[in-house]
């Protein structure tokens, strides 16, 4: 296992030392890493003073152990991690598995040491946002999010920020849309900055509404709900599975299942299913290989009119009008 000792912060001083640790180099805004370690893209951007975005879309060819120890504690790291494979984060005596269907958002104070291990063969798509705490306070004020304990949240002397969570469905689709763009250049940079602002806004509004309640749910229940999210995604082309069929799989009451699913995702199981089905429909239209009728049949809509109605409810325009804009 290759060990990478490094640091992050809310400016770009960490970039070159980090690249050296990976036996890589800097090329513009890219960190170029040897092919025997990984294939794919690492890209960094200073969105504005005090906010840095770090975009990762790579497949690992070695087991890696990242040891993060930061020289500054004036920032918070938001780690949106949609890894397919095996990844584990250890910090502040807490160990959790990260990935698309596990905990996929870690919010960690810059003062904390962190260990991140990733296994060879894993494919990581992640966006890390490093933001100074005074900038975080500005985000809260700009979004008019009401926090009675704002100073405690952003003052390193009064609070050490650490949280493991599941991202919202909206945030997942924001990240997925970013992934479709060619990395690098003014257009991508503009979209990356916009993504950072949207993710921060979504997250802060979410915690202001007290919707992040992972810490109050039993780990076994979390795993069961995540398993059913995976089940819905795996069956996304078919009709919506019944609530009863899902609860029988995990031996949970229907009432408890509905409550926990909504607490963890912000959506009912059916809304979660339809949002992801519509996202797939949008991708199939963008791909241009299938007709509207073929997509409607593939996704098991009763007819084209039903598909059109659902698509328009989600995206504000019909599939035909959407295709004309491509």
Distinctive features:
326 residues, alpha+beta, single chain, globular, 12 helices, 6-stranded antiparallel beta sheet, 5-stranded mixed beta sheet
| Low-pLDDT ranges | 210-216
Structural class: alpha+beta
Helix content: 40-55%
Radius of gyration: 21 Å
Q: H/E order of the elements?
A: EHEEEEEEEEEEEHHEHHHHHHHHH
Please tally the helical runs, counting DSSP H or I stretches of 4 or more residues.
Answer: 12
SS strand fraction: 15-25%
Characterize the main sheet. Answer: 6 strands, antiparallel
Envelope shape: globular
| Overall number of strands | 13
Compute the separation of the termini in Å: 45 Å
Question: Strands of the biggest beta sheet: in what spatial order?
Answer: 4-5-12-7-10-13
Mean pLDDT: 88
> What is the oligomeric state here?
single chain
Summarize the structure.
The chain contains 12 helices and 13 strands. The chain has 326 residues and is α+β, with helices and mostly antiparallel strands. Helix 4 runs antiparallel to helix 5 (186-208).
Task: Characterise this structure.
With 326 residues, the protein is an alpha+beta fold. The chain has helices at 15-21, 133-142, 150-154, 169-179, 186-208, 219-234, 243-250, 254-265, 269-287, 292-298, 304-315, 319-325; strands at residues 2-6, 25-27, 30-32, 38-48, 51-60, 64-68, 75-81, 87-91, 94-98, 105-109, 114-118, 123-132, 162-165. A 6-stranded antiparallel sheet has the order 4-5-12-7-10-13. Strands 1-6-11-8-9 form a 5-stranded mixed sheet. The longest helix has 23 residues, at 186-208. The radius of gyration is 21 Å and the shape is globular. The termini are far apart. 29% of the residues are buried.
């Amino acid at each position: 296992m290759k060990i990478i000792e490094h640091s992050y912060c809310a400016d770009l001083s960490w970039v070159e030392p980090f690249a050296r640790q990976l036996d890589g180099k800097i090329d513009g805004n890219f960190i170029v890493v040897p092919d025997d370690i990984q294939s794919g893209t690492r890209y960094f951007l200073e969105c504005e003073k005090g906010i840095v975005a770090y975009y990762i879309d790579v497949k690992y060819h070695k087991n890696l152990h990242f040891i993060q120890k930061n020289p500054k504690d004036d920032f918070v790291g938001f780690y949106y991690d949609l890894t397919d494979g095996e990844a584990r984060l250890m910090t502040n005596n807490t160990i959790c598995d990260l990935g698309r269907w596990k905990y996929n958002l870690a919010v960690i104070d810059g003062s904390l040491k962190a260990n991140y291990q990733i296994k060879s063969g894993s494919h990581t798509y992640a966006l890390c946002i490093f933001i100074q705490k005074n900038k975080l306070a500005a985000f809260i004020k700009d979004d008019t999010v009401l926090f009675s304990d704002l100073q405690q949240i952003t003052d390193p002397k009064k609070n050490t920020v650490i949280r493991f969570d599941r991202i919202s469905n909206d945030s997942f689709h924001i990240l997925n849309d970013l992934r479709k763009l060619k990395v690098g250049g003014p257009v991508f940079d503009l979209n990356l900055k916009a993504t950072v602002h949207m993710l921060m806004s979504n997250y802060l509004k979410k915690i202001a509404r007290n919707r992040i309640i992972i810490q109050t749910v039993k780990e076994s229940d979390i795993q069961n709900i995540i398993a059913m999210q995976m089940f819905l995604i795996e069956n996304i082309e078919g009709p919506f599975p019944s609530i009863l069929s899902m609860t029988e799989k995990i031996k949970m009451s229907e009432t408890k299942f509905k409550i926990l699913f909504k607490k963890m995702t912000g959506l009912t199981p059916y809304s979660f299913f339809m949002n992801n089905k519509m996202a797939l429909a949008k991708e199939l239209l963008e791909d241009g290989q299938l007709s509207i009728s073929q997509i409607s049949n593939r996704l098991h809509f009763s007819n084209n009119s039903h598909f059109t109605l659902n698509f328009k409810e989600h995206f504000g325009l019909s599939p035909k009008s959407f295709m004309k804009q491509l």
